[in-house]
Amino acid sequence: MIEIVRKLTELEKRLKSLEAIEPSTKIVASYTTNQAQSISHNTETIVDFEDQVIDTHAAVTTGASWKFVAPSAGYYLVSVRLLFSATSNWLDGELGSIKLVCGSSHWYLDRKDNFPGSSLYMQLSGTWIVHAALSDEINVKVYQNTGSSLTIFNEATPGFTGIMIIKL
After folding, report:
1. Three-state SS letters, 56-72
2. Residue ranges of the domains in the chain?
3. What does each C-alpha distance from 13 to 5, 6, 16 come to in angstroms?
4. Which of 9, 67, 69, 115 lies 20 to 30 angstroms, CA to CA, from 31?
5. C-alpha angle 157-168-142 in degrees, rounded to nearest 5
6. Using one digit for the tens of pLDDT, what is the confidence trace for 71-85?
């Protein structure tokens, strides 16, 4: 009986050390925004998803330099949606794009041009799987070239503009 208790105690110690190395809790971060962030003409701007939905590892820093810092190395699924406020500024040939940045790599998730009209809402979105090293930063940059600043749609309803990051 003493031998069984000793083996169980050893096993418990091993499990605790494994949990310290790789926690069993899934890494998930989901944020939205409703602040009508201004996006300047012809300038890549980091999107500030300032409203936390869930952040299991407190991995996000909000503000002008918004970032998700990978709590562990591995593959992450990143999904982004961004909606510009209605504007008549989109002229033929002008564009909007979103870029996902992870460490020193980046991917263009969406780009729209030839989007003329009045009172239009342009939506950009995309999903990608990235490999992040421990402490790599993930963020999203938006670009538009309408000739003036535009704002991100500021509706409080979740889902118009947001980001979701899940470790696979």
Report:
1. CCCCEECCCCCEEECCC
2. 25-167
3. 12, 11, 5
4. 115
5. 45
6. 999 999 999 999 988
> Looking at domain 25-167, does it have CATH number 2.60.120.40?
yes
* pTM for the structure as a whole: 0.82
Contacts of 5 (CB under 8 A, 6+ apart): none
pLDDT in tens, 26-59: 999 999 998 899 999 999 999 999 999 999 999 9
Distance (Å, whole) CA 67 – CA 72: 15
Q: Which two tokens stand for residue 90?
A: 């989109």
CA-nearest of 13, 59, 41, 34 to 160 is: 34
SS3 at position 42: coil
**Locus of tokens 């406020």:** 85
Please name which of 166, 136, 130 lies closest in space to residue 57, comparing C-alpha atoms. 166
What is the H or E stretch that residue 48 is in?
A: none
- Which has the closest alpha carbon to 78: 106, 96, 100, 93? 100
